[in-house]
Amino acid sequence: MHTDLIVRAAHIENFDPAPARTAATAVAVHGGRIVAVGDDRLLRERAGSATRVLEFPGATLAPGLTDSHAHPVWGAIEVGTGLDLGGASTLDEVCARIAGRLAERGTAERGTGSGPAGPWVTGFDLDVNVFDGQPTGDLLERRFPGVPVSLMTRDAHSLVVSPAVVDRIGLTGTEVFDDASAIVVGPDGRPTGFVLELQAMELVFAHYPAVPLTTAARLVADRLHAFAATGLTGLHALDFTAPSEDVYREIERTGELPVRVRCSPLVPADSARDTWEAVAAQQRLAGRRWHVAGAKFMLDGTADNGSAWFEHPDVLGQNRRPLWKDVAAYREAVRFFTERGIPTATHAIGDRAVRTALDVIGETGHPPSAPHRIEHVESVPDDLLPRFAALGVVAGLQPVHATRMTRADRTDNWSRRIGPHRAAHGWRTRDLLDHGVVVALGSDWPIGIGDPRTALADAQLRRPVDEPETAPVQPGQRISAREAYAGMTRAPAVAAGAADRLGRIAPGYLADLTVFAHDPLDLTPEQQAANPVLATVVGGSVLHHAPRERTS
Q: What are the UniProt keywords, alphabetically (predicted)?
């Protein structure tokens, strides 16, 4: 049988645990699936007059990389329209960037003179360490009087807004939310400008300037193409908020998604059964390369904000409550989805949150479609490690969170707040693997760096790959290159219930491939981070990429 496509390289690497190499150098593809893997004989046996043959001399064919945790729609819109505050380590630097954005717009748009519908300055990746104590918007008012400024913190679980935003929206600090969200108030009872957790943040987002659908679709498509150029052929979008469906359909109306996208809608904390029913109904939604599968829960918030759920309070007396006020309702919701064959992914950062999620999964079991998973798992005691494998729970980890949001000397906000003992039990990638846990690696983009080569290198080094002078965080938790790449190939396939069709180069599997200029297993982590991606293949459709450096 002649095939549609034959891809030939110097080597094929599946990142199996056993280090033995095969002599295979070619992959035959027909109807979007791999039909044969072999050597040059495939060219004689499978190539016909209509077969497309691609040659990549010296290159390595790998299973397509999958980011197991990303937020492509709101992330692309936020990054495409907001002010990037990444790397701004002081409040003066933050304000300088805001001033630069205002200068770009011109003085006519600044201040109260622009009227009640005047322009906002929105930003992302704000480092809370720039504030001396709890973040407050009053400092923004002093520098930019009357300007509505809304800055999303690096963990994307809070906003710092100026008094102009507080006044424009009419925030009072007396707002009541279903979950543990809050409009933080000061000693005088007035809002400080610190808006904590998602439901409170939505009050602000509702007043952001509208982004036209065509603009949103362009921003998302551009970002997905950038991801493909770094080696990704798929990603798990752990959200499906508006305008996600409209954006994906708009992209496919005029073209094709360059990667596969598996979407898991958020089940809001303390939501009722009608909301669960609506999320369950979304499971039938799909396009050519995107589909809805699974449900996302947020059992707690983040340690940096004091909204994670630990067994014991942090040094400020916080990080001691779940985001779901009614934990019994969370338990009921997980059972609801499990009984309907829908897998769940639970955001759980603190040890109490992780323990509770494991307890609930132990009670409900897994749906047949895919295993339940727990995301982040930032700090856990020894006794929880074996429970993941015993219960068959996938651990979703983001290597760059450990390497770029914390420091080895524990002077960062995360480490200071939770204390040295819990910090020492953080980011336990090596320990989880040693306990036989399936560990799926992701970026949490735009919170983390979206280039998978960066995450894969950081996971091996336990420090930023581009900062050789930086001391590693928990160096005992380093993993090998083979383990890292398996965490972005085989593990995401297991997490999606697709291990029989994704994550390997083998007959019968979908033809999702990443073509690396060099075999990653022959390179140092530093070299891997700059290993050119020559092409990606999704379902037999080829995208060629010019060699490029790491991207954020």
A: Hydrolase
